[in-house]
Specification:
This protein has 147 residues and is an alpha+beta fold. The chain contains 6 helices and 2 strands. The relative contact order is 0.12.
């Protein structure tokens, strides 16, 4: 919500919560940033990368992918012909764009914090990736230097 607030305020629109694009570990009993897990060589990092998400209380990768694919289809159908900003976390971004690109690995790249990726969707169901992990908006404000 906090990430979406500046855009919503600037455009004078309300934020709508869409449960379908919630992160895979939303029901986990803890949260540790991925960069901390990686640097400390935490066993949960390996489990996360290898798709053994049940080991830390998250959805199974295939269940997550199905939920995200369905949610993206619902968003495309509901907002046909319009631009939509879906603010979400890295797992959702990985799976949504990976589905378009035919990448089976659920976590295949590390999205930058507040990065933007753009997906195009035709009314006929054809989807493509227009951009991936854009950070120019941060560089313009020099925020990227602090991230």
């Amino acid at each position: 919500m906090q990430t979406a607030e500046p855009v919503a305020a600037a455009l004078g629109i309300e934020i709508e919560t869409f449960e379908g694009i919630a992160e895979y570990d939303r029901d986990a009993d803890h949260y540790i940033p991925t960069e901390e897990l990686r640097v400390t060589k935490d066993a949960r990092w390996t489990a996360m990368v290898e798709g053994r998400w049940d080991e830390f209380g998250a959805e199974a990768p295939e269940v997550f992918r199905g939920r995200i694919d369905e949610a993206v289809s619902e968003i495309v159908e509901r907002f046909a012909g319009r631009r939509v900003a879906a603010v979400c976390h890295g797992g959702v971004i990985n799976v949504a764009l990976g589905s378009v690109l035919g990448i089976g690995q659920p976590l295949w790249f590390e999205p930058g914090y507040t990065s933007m990726s753009r997906m195009l969707a035709s009314r006929g169901g054809i989807r493509s990736v227009a951009s991936l992990n854009e950070l120019a908006h941060l560089k313009a404000t020099r925020l990227a230097d602090r991230i």
